[in-house]
Amino acid sequence: MLTISQLAAYAGVTVRAVRHYHQVGLLPEPERDASGYRRYGARAVVSLIKIRTLANAGVPLSQIGPMLDADASAFAEAIQRIDNDLRDEIDRLETSRKQLAQLAAGDHLTLPPEVIFYLDRLREIGVSERVMEGERDAWILVAARWPDHISDVMPWKLAQLDDPQLVRLYRLGSEILDSDAGDDDPRLAEAADIMAGHLADAYTSAEAAHDEAAHEDLPFGLLDALAVESDPRAQRMLDLMRERGWTSWTRTRPQRLAEPPYDP
Do the beta carbons of residue 136 and residue 107 sit within 8 Å? Predict the structure, then answer.
């Protein structure tokens, strides 16, 4: 007959584990002998080894008890069920690992590949990281609201990068955001002029026409709010765009659709 320490050592578990198995009802707890010790026989050793083996294989403790009493068919069914659960868990963990890898890659977590390519092109033309942060966050909002439009819009956006004026606009934005100038910075007016011309072209272009999106106020309001929250000077840009007849720089929609767009 074995003491609890001898039982634990023989089965390759800790005394604490044996006591826990007693507590959850997996291993019967023998009565104490005349000297006050609990003594375990061979059947207890066999049961404990089975419990340890199943637990090490990933079987939840709550399922081990019924499996110990199951016949061969029921035992095999239980093993298959647990195996299926483990496969599902492995798939979930693999998905989590992929997401973690994307986290390490930064932009790739929340943006489709077409937008990533566009952001890389912006970096190539010298856009500052401060502007890149704003672009990335803005595209997160856009991609979340209109995921099916991204593949249609991005070729048009990439083609725009061949326009020297648009490149100038991005570089102006980089200069302004990287400076300590206030909202009276004359470069803001220059940026607004370029943007107004850009919006006028986009407004009349069939390629850029997305009527269903143009009438949704919430996404564009979020885009404008994102810019203002990122830099207070964005409010001055919004005011300048409205002076030029546009609701903002994020929307190819004049303030009064009956009037022709402003052309600087």
Answer: yes
Maximum alpha-carbon separation in the chain: 103
Q: What are the tens digits of pLDDT across the range 65-75?
A: 899 888 889 88
Write down the domain spans for the chain: 1-60, 70-104, 106-243
- pLDDT tops 60 at residue 105: no
Closest CA to 262 of 202, 219, 200: 200
Global pTM value: 0.56
CATH class label, 1-60: mainly alpha
CB–CB of 200/262 below 8 Å?
Answer: yes
Question: Residues 14, 74, 60, 99: is their CA dihedral positive or negative?
Answer: positive
Tokens, residue 131:
């502007």
DSSP one-letter code for 105:
T
Task: Give the three-state DSSP class for 100.
Answer: helix
Q: How confident is the model at residue 202 (pLDDT cuts 50, 70, 90)?
A: confident
Residue 261 per-residue DSSP state:
P
Measure the CA–CA gap between 77 and 68, rounded to whole angstroms.
13
